[in-house]
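Lecture 7 notes: from sequence to structure.

We start with a single chain of 81 residues. Read the sequence below before looking at the structure.
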Amino acid sequence: MPRLITLDGIDAPDVLNFEIPVSWIPGRMYRKAHALVQDTNKSIYKYNQLDTGKGANHKFYYVLSRSQKVHTTMSHALVKR
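Now the structure, written as tokens:
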């Protein structure tokens, strides 16, 4: 079993690579990301919920889908629906 574990770990990377070649990312993805960052008040809703039993504060993030055309702004009322 120890030999199997050693052999299994030989191909495992030592360091995670967080760099992606720019050529792999299409230009439209940059434009969509930029639009999302510019309109955070309209498309992202942050909700803090206090758990009174444990005294813990939980954070929830709701993101409005860009593909839907019914709602224009993410709000607490929309989350409740």
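The chain has a mean pLDDT of 79. Keep this in mind for problem set 3.
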